[in-house]
Fold each of these.
Amino acid sequence: MSAIPTPAKPNASALALAREVIAIEAGAVAALADRIDGAFARAVELLLACDGRVVVTGIGKSGHIGRKLASTLASTGTPAMFVHAAEAAHGDLGMITREDVLLALSYSGEGDELLTIVPVAKREAPR
């Protein structure tokens, strides 16, 4: 039977750094409150009224985050799926229906793949 190892004593500088990181992140989250506006409210309304699925798309790091977001939405009861932005432009747009809401994630807002598929998805949207 092996003994449970005793945790090492935390390094004071590591604790200070951890506290500093948490304080910086908390400040960034608090600053988001001032950025919530009518566009945010409209996005929430669209998601709540969605009769289809929340289709999350992105590429690169935004794609990784989008895949996790779609998975979390699906596991909490919101029908959702992830469509990779580059794959969408090569045929996967057919998986998106008029009843779906497209949630496009992008760090810059200027990725070629997203700029290609968003207008197509908008044309398919109900009037």
Amino acid sequence: MNLDSIFQSSSFRGLLQLLIRNKTLRQPVVRLIEKKEWEFFVEKNELNRPPQVQRDKYDYLIALLHSAQRGLDRGLISKHVQERMIETFVSGVLTNGKRIKECAERLGFDPPGFLVISPTKLCNLHCTGCYACSDSTTAEKLDFATLDRIITEKEELWGSYFTVISGGEPFMWKDDGKDLIDMAAKHSNDYFMVYTNGTFINKETARRLEEIGNLSPAISVEGFEEETDRRRGKGVHKRILQAFENLREVGVPFGISITALRNNWDIVSSDEFADYYFDEIGALYGWIFQYMPIGRKHTLDLMVTPEQRLEMLEHIWRWLQVRRLFVADFWNSGTASSGCIAAGRPGGYLYVDWDGDVTPCAFVPYAAANIYEVYKNGGNLNTIVHKALFRRIRQWQNEYGYTKPAEQTSNWFCPCPIRDHHDRLLKIVRECGALPIDSEAKEALEDAEYHSDLTQYGRDFDRLTDPIWEEHYRADSLVSSSSEKDYRAQPGWVTKIRDKAEVLL
């Protein structure tokens, strides 16, 4: 059988297995997947999304493939972890559509795709502007049995085999003599991504992570040494570099998690930053979280400005388009996710914190339910999905564009209810009686100036990005082939759009 016959007879899962296992066939497999996914996302476009939205989704998937290829070619993923990735991430996450469809038919609704869970508020650092207000003295945490039940239910009820763990510092969580790695080992068919400050990833922890093979750390950096230590504490960056080395040594794939602030946005979106962390350090993916004014001493003064956010949009999309780096920016990558994915949207997620409070996402600190109370009253995760707060947010998502045809879809460069449409989210929170999860959230809920400023922020960014949406999404100006770079691959396109918008902020 020749190569063409092998490729044509292979399913998407089979092609991904070839990509991982066969170095000789890796490059032709990537090219074939690029062709097949262009046909699926862009040419078929079964959900009638704006064509450029489908190009965005395609670009992200291809960047993920290229990132995996780089990691495999450079020997950054051990043989054992490669096999575990096939068993968990490939089979349980990327090619799990049949199982999810079966769950949807049984439930009568399309379920969320995953959960974000913070099992502990405890942290050894004290970062400026921490969304969770974490510190080294708190005892708040989920018990092992409850966390185990949550993960089991999402697997059984939703067909979900992807779990995101946040904090606090997740590697400090322990209960009943067990830690997070024990939990990941227990749920061996689930793939875990863990946001961590990296300071607990010593050689022994890295060895255990390689042994289970279904957990990838996303380690927090704020730029280079100076910027990271300024926010996280002196000497933290050196400890992070040691964590990277420990993971590379045993072949555990890792990424980075970046908080973009008004005083570091240009650094974390620079080519020098990408060169260092992706080429030199070996990170395979990155998540950028633009600072959201919640949590410890929340202030809009730390937020990137609308104009800075627009500049970041240009830099990050060029990384994706030209360098094929898998880097997603919350919130600048909203077009690739068809808008907001919070509040239990189909394929999206809910957030569960250390007290069991369940909120739409980690950046909306208002709870619709508490998991302990739901379980006490005989409910489960599906009980929570149907809570009024989540239903109302999903209704807003649908009206904004998620269930609309392409020509009626609103600007997904402004995808976030709390950041980009704050007045709408505030109205929903108050009408549904959602409860603040802490004193900082309660203070924000009662702060009229805070609400006014955030509402204006969203309007300003919409005015800046609406010309992009109108020209490149509504106007159906999609490039003609997958090999052709679109407008965002060219330096300076943001300046041209901004000049055309004739907006003074």
Amino acid sequence: MRVFTGSLYTETNTFSPLPCGLAAFRDRGYYPAGTHPGEMLFYAGPLWAARQRARERGWTLCEGMVASAQPAGIVTRQAYETLRDELLADLKAAMPLDMVVLALHGAMVADGYDDCEGDVLTRVRQIVGPQVVVGAELDPHCHLSACMLEQADLLICFKEYPHTDVAERALELVDLCAATVAGQVRPVGSMVDCEMIVTVHTTRAPARGFVDRMSALEQQPGVLSVSLAHGFAWGDTPDMGTKLLVYTDALAGPSPQHARQQGEQLASRLADELIALREQMAVHGPGMDEALDQALALGRGPVVLADSADNPGGGAAGDSTHLLQRLLARGISPASVGPLWDPMAVRFAFEAGVGAQLPLRVGGKTGPLSGEPVDALWTVRALVPDMKMSSLSGAAIALGDCACVETAGTCVVLTTVRNQALGTDLFTQLGVRLEDQRIVVVKSSQHFHAAFAPVATQVIYVSAPGSVPFDLAQLPYRKARRPKWPLPAG
């Protein structure tokens, strides 16, 4: 069997001030055809999974381009069309094929393209024709569109948030696509729009139980896959929102129509259950001072505060100073903040050297939502060139040159490469002992949880200013279909 795999992957915050061009893809991960590294990367799960199965089953594997950018603002037309066309050229060169498996985020928006993944899948289908099986692994924070569903034979979302199951879902995708090629199954997709947008933290009830129930339903006769597309609230597109996707097997029952009815009924039932749980799933974080009061009242640390509104993983700049300003104003220490994206401050710290004291203007450089820079006398505590951080996929994540600077008992981890907090080694490599901290502020919405929750006294999700706010009503939507709970009619 001849199999093609590749990736074009980013999440677009249409309200972010950061343009996403070709340099953003080169900074995070750009691998021309045939140059992908041996380890699994978060944004190329199907390629890794296809490699495993190709070795076991003797497939001919054709590896196309892999490209991923850190979430940011709208992708430039030049970047999107250049990378899309490179991936499609790789696909054409690999023909003839039996199967195509892609890694696509599902929430990429480019200049002139509200549904990049729908566009990619449409062009893939035009190249390979109706007989080749086409599948894609998606991030659940996707804008699941009718176009994507129509052009692909299978779409499978990660189930976990944090996304700790990339490998498992990639293997599931590859195996189901291979079974489809072999004629063992015939997937029929059914999608239901929940007419809402909700945050689904699978680390806590009731989302944990709902996701476990989804997995259990996949063991029922005729049910191939159940995915929950959480949606991405900070992407203003017509397809934004929470949806249920069920694939049933047309070969398992008396007729394809029976399979479709089974899928539609199951998707509708799950959607109704999810809608009933939405109030419990919604994240309503305390404001900055209330969160700090709650943390101090616990009497011991480290208390981890999630600065979700400045999460680079959601397209924010990662350089906001709002929580840092409150820590300093209130004299709360020892405390740590990171990662804060500030290449200029890092350069100055490296020039000065470890142990130096120097006046630095830290953070607050990207725009109004980043707050005011912190001007203070800072001590350079540690420097690590070309530092990497552990991640959910196991592959190390580049943070560039990093500096730990301290003022008034508060340490800030400064980076030259924008990224969210994933592993605790973000701090420990720079000598910050988390167990000694009263407060640890992480620039992340939820992916930090897998590594930080085990060492935290408590985790508090903070409502602060930024590009990824909890309060969606403050965002100027123009394209999203409304009403869509909790958003009123536009």
